[in-house]
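Translate sequence into structure tokens.
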Amino acid sequence: MKKLFSILLIALILPLSVSAANKWEEGKHYNVISDKATAKPEVKEFFSFWCPACFRFEPLVKSMKAGLGEDVKFTKVHVNFMSFAGPDVQEAATKAMIIARAMKKEEALNGAIFNYIHQQRSTVTGLNDLRNVFIINGVEAEDFDKMAKSFSVKSLVNKNNKEITEFREHLNGVPNFIVNGKYQAVFTREMTTDDIVNLIVWLTKQP
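Result follows.
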């Protein structure tokens, strides 16, 4: 009787496992955009501070990070091709994000920039406006100015923009998630927020 119960239990679990493995379909939930994956698992979120959907996605991004393995690197890449602001202003926002990253305060200061644009409905005219946002949120003016002039920040801004160039043909809109340099996530209308997070986590585990 005990053996029969075990067989029945396995019979029930197996279809569920197969179903979970087949839940995400290529061409529907993700696209393969490269023949080769990165050496280590990674997630790149292409976004814009001016994008309302990117602003709404921030809580999901936090959930994604929490669900990723410790070996998975998550990087935000700020795009410069949105129509909401001029290229120079968007470049200033990229620089501000990189400064926040160098200060190890990226999540908090990104949130402050998003709130400045979407909740306070304030206009960003250049780096000085973003400098003021940082100062209001506890960053010393001298520290900001020092970082803004640093070679390391300039190099990281260039790296950010090279990422845009590399994947530009796949970036018809934002937010856009590229996983392991090989997979582009596709979010469908019927997907729940948990589905979105689970898809990203699942893609990081694909070769």
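Note: The helical segments are 2-21, 52-67, 87-102, 106-118, 127-136, 141-148, 151-167, 193-204.
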